[in-house]
Design goal:
The chain has a domain of 33 residues. Helices cover 69% and strands 0% of the residues. The chain has 2 helices and no strands.
Length: 67
């Protein structure tokens, strides 16, 4: 049902929740979020891929009354 990447992402979310859930109910102390540079790089790459695909589809759909 889920691919290995999906399972890994769900496990990461679960660990993040278990690690930070108690902080949701604490007052006054905010934990600085940890930035995963690899994940940010992967997300930027995915945004680029989707932008290119979106632009391609917009051009191809124009003759049929698309945007």
């Amino acid at each position: 049902m889920f691919t290995c990447k999906h399972r890994e992402a769900i496990n990461q979310w679960k660990l993040a929740l278990l690690d930070g859930a108690s902080g949701v109910f604490e007052r006054g102390s905010r934990k600085v979020p940890v930035i995963d540079e690899d994940q940010v790089r992967d997300l930027h790459a995915k945004i680029g891929e989707l932008a290119v695909a979106n632009s391609f589809l917009e051009r191809k759909l124009k003759p049929w009354g698309g945007k």
